[in-house]
Amino acid sequence: MSTIRKTIDIEAGLQALLVADKWTACAPPLPPTLGSSLPLVAVYRTGGTRALFVQDEHAVTFDVYAADDAAAMESADALTAWASALEGRDIGGEPCHLVEIGALPYNNPDPRHPTLARASFSARIRTRVSHINN
Amino acid sequence: MSLDAAKVLVGTADQQSSTGAVRSGAVISTIPASFSAAETTLATLTDSGYVSEAGVELSNDISTTDIVEWNRSVVRKVLDSFNGELKLTLIQCDYESWCQALGSQYVTKSQDGHQLTIKMGAHLAPEQTFAIALKDGTSRAIVVVPRGQVTTLDTISFSATEAIALPITISCYDDGTGNSIYIFVDDGKSSGSTGITGA
User: Fold this and answer.
1) What is this structure's pTM?
2) Rounded to whole angstroms, how far apart are CA atoms B56 and B52?
3) Where are the domains of chain A?
4) Shortest Cα distance, chain A CAs vs residue B15, angstroms
């Protein structure tokens, strides 16, 4: 027997946790109804590394859409606290070992949605890899 | 033995919002003999809050002396001494952490619990039992030191850019059976596995 070490779908895993914790969230793509339920959190994996034999470090960006800049920033601030508390929880079925907030929330207007405000921040999230037995 | 990456474990702290992973208390009289007994021991000890990101380092130093024959070949090594140590840095500045580092007789807390008086001097912390709770997914481990003593409290930095940290070394003594450190591991698949520590 050997095992394949697969990267988890962290976008889907984080979205599921966010929804379980009463956030409105999506993994890509943004929903066509964007703006109907705010604030909305969009989670993107922007890269990462295989940090250890059984551990991946995911670079993740959180975008928070809201009606105005203040609301977007306030929700993004709250979301950093939520993300920091992920250590020890399961994401996509695998344990989260470490969370480091990178860039703190900043105003990041989305030119595709000029009527909404967007605040963004990044985090590096280490999770165990998923094991698939051969 | 087959290759199984699921058995490659990472030593993350088994801590909850209300319970740290490093615990200490009065020296135990019964050495745990199983994982579940170690869990029971763990539940009787007091946690010390956050530990720095460096985690816990366990060193298992066995020193030996060579027996060399006439023509200078080593024919045997004999045991000189065993020195087991745990090194970690406590970063939560509260009563429990200072007690773990110095002993409760050198730390006093005001009645409302908001003020501490810490006395440092030419004295060692008392012997205590220490336990470290670890987990990685469903796998868990508990390190138990029945007779441990903080023998080094390293430099404490008071700086605007770092946490006030207590870097301690715990010397692990023989418990009377020839052992100083016990490690209990549970892969989470045993019928007796309880999953996450709930202490």
Assistant:
1) 0.86
2) 9
3) 3-133
4) 8
